[in-house]
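The methods section describes the discrete structure representation at length, but only in general terms. The central task, working out the structure tokens from the amino acid sequence alone, is never made concrete. Nothing conveys this as quickly as seeing an actual entry. For illustration, here is how one protein appears when written out as sequence plus structure tokens:
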Amino acid sequence: MSLVYVGYVPHPPIIVAEVGQGEEKDCQATIDAYHKLCNEVVKMEAKTVLIVSPHAPLMEKGLVYLEGDTLSGSFSRFRAPQVKFTYEVDKDILEKIIEEIPEAFGARAELDHGTLVPLYFLRKAGWEGKIVVLGMPLSKAEDYGRKVGRILNDSPVRCALIASGDLSHTLKEDGPYGFTPAGPKVDNLIVKALKKDTALLRGIPRDWLEEAGVCGYHSLLFALGAREGSVKVFSYEGPFGVGYLIAEIYRSSPIAGFARECLTYYLTAQPFDKLIIPGDPLLKEKRSCFVTLKKDGALRGCIGTVQPVRENLAAEIKHNAIAAGTQDPRFWPVQAEELPLITVSVDVLSDLEKISGYEELDPQRYGVVLRRGGKVGLLLPHLEGVDTVEEQVAIAKQKAGILPEEEVELWRFEVERFFE
């Protein structure tokens, strides 16, 4: 898996110190979150960064890429010509995009501020590498995101994707487009969707987006299409009447990759003494986990333990990964030839906490364990389509064979979710 990171960032030139000349301090939360996200890209050792910008050349239908062996630009339009960049283009990835997406068209242009601002903070974080720049698709953004995500994932080079875009431009009367009620409404909905259920993003009415003046909506959909993991909102603010959002959409984890390796070794009859355990210290802890397999987005297997029963998390993952692929009674055993079509995630559970009532649950934050007699039901948190405590408890009761009206003992837990 070579697509190791996906992020969403804003692009106000004012947060560049040489442009802001002190005014950038009004956006300190955004600046701090920008540094955090770019440091993550460096930690993930991404050698190529693909940036999607709403200010690069755009087409109503199709996908635009910037041509050239190198791409250059500066902040001269913003009174800081001394801040300039030239980056080499990753020709291998660009050629793959051209080859696999027939409706991708080239354009020659300088780097715009939608690309320059992310590059400014990436360089501050110490990143140096190659780039590919795409214009934000104005239609079928998620479809193009999926296609580009697959291309990056098949690359032998570790890649990151940064989607650039501001949110609403109508948050304040003294903002660039004044105030409209749609501005804060749309931004609140986008932030809520990223924190709870990204499916909510697809339902935002088009006229709301237009009234709010959101410039990065399709960039965000592109990023989610490329690869969606455990989304984290790093910051959101709108001090100048424009919404600035920074979010981590996806990050690769060796923990989930280890789960895949365990299942792969088992299905292909490779000797486990050659299996390399990653160096993540979490794998040495005694923790319980669930391993989930999906194929084409649909569940293909899920097995786990509520409390640890093996010597460490690595052993727990090995057992549960194999069991998820071969012992989940809801599915036929996974075959080796299916492995390229399957995605793997690992949920590492916290200790169980006894609670007294439903009011102490939150299906987005906590999983639930409920018990009546010898019957036990469990449901993980942050599941698509499970929005209320009542739904969460009802499903857990159904899984355990407990009647809806029956009283139960309750425990809650949190999880840390890892994706490949």
Notes: The chain has a mean pLDDT of 94. The longest strand covers residues 80-88. The chain has two domains: 3-251, 255-419. The two ends are 7 Å apart (CA to CA).
